[in-house]
Design brief:
By secondary structure, this protein is mainly α. 49% of the residues lie in helices and 10% in strands. Helix 1 packs across helix 7.
């Protein structure tokens, strides 16, 4: 979890591959109206996010019900969003990729994505850093982050 440009998708894909788990990107679950709104430079409201969060919650519940571990890359900027995404469930672990605006702005301006860099400031303003998450420096190399994550959550998932 974290703001745009922190490396959620890149790290999530690599972590899932490392663990042999499925990977899901929360961006793929946004309804077209949300994508269009963000592409036009308008930040989403909590009401805009509600159906998106509900879909992600259903995904997580289905994975948990079927004992099918997965990695989900999701901004999850506010605590109430994380609560919706089962933050209190013992098998759900949040990993917060933390960093500064300048670093992430540079990253988002260098990629092709529907969310323009101008929305990054609104994400930093909405961000409620988690208190119950593995917090990592998003500027570390993905291989280093994967090693740290694997060590930290090994007991939780039995590997």
């Amino acid at each position: 979890m974290g703001v745009s440009g922190c490396g959620k998708s890149t790290l999530g894909q690599r972590l899932a591959q490392h663990l042999g788990w499925d990977f899901f990107d929360a961006d793929d679950f946004h309804p077209p109206v949300n994508v269009a709104k963000m592409a036009s430079g308008m930040p989403l409201t909590d009401a805009d996010r509600a159906p998106w969060l509900a879909a992600l919650r259903q995904l997580l519940l289905a994975r948990l019900d079927n004992d099918a571990p997965a990695v989900l890359a999701c901004s999850a900027l506010k605590q109430r969003y994380r609560d919706e995404l089962l933050a209190q469930h013992p098998a759900v672990q949040f990993i917060y990729l933390q960093g500064d605006f300048a670093t992430f702005y540079q990253r988002v301006t260098a990629r092709a994505h529907y969310m323009p860099p101008t929305l990054l400031q609104s994400q930093f303003e909405a961000l409620e850093p988690p208190t119950h998450a593995l917090t990592l420096d998003a500027t570390l190399p993905p291989a280093t982050l994967i090693a740290v994550i694997t060590r930290q959550v090994a007991d939780l998932y039995g590997f």
